Amino acid sequence: MPELLSVSKAQSIILDAIQTLATELIPIQSARSRRLATPIITDTDLPPFTNSSADGFAVQAADTLNASSASPVVLTIIGDIPAGTNPAFRVNRGQAARIMTGAPLPEGADAVVMVEATDIGIRGLAVPIPRQVRIFSPILPGDSLRPRGQDLTAGTQLFPAGHRLRPPDIGLLASLGIPQVQVYRQPRIALLSTGDELLDPSKPLQPGKIHDANSYLLASVLQEHGAVITHMGFVGDDEVAIRESLENYAASGIDLLITSAGVSVGAYDYVRKIITEQGDLTFWRVNMRPGKPLAFGRFRNVPVIGLPGNPVSAFVSCLIFVLPALNKMSGAATWFLDSIHAKLLEPVESDGRESYLRAILENQHGNWFVKLAGQQSSGNLFVLTRSNALLILPSEVKSLPTGAEVNVYPLFPETGWD
Ligand SMILES: Nc1nc2c(c(=O)[nH]1)N[C@H]1C(S)=C(S)[C@@H](COP(=O)(O)OP(=O)(O)OC[C@H]3O[C@@H](n4cnc5c(N)ncnc54)[C@H](O)[C@@H]3O)O[C@H]1N2
Ligand code: MOO
Question: How many CB atoms within 10 Å of residue 121?
Answer without folding.
Answer: 17
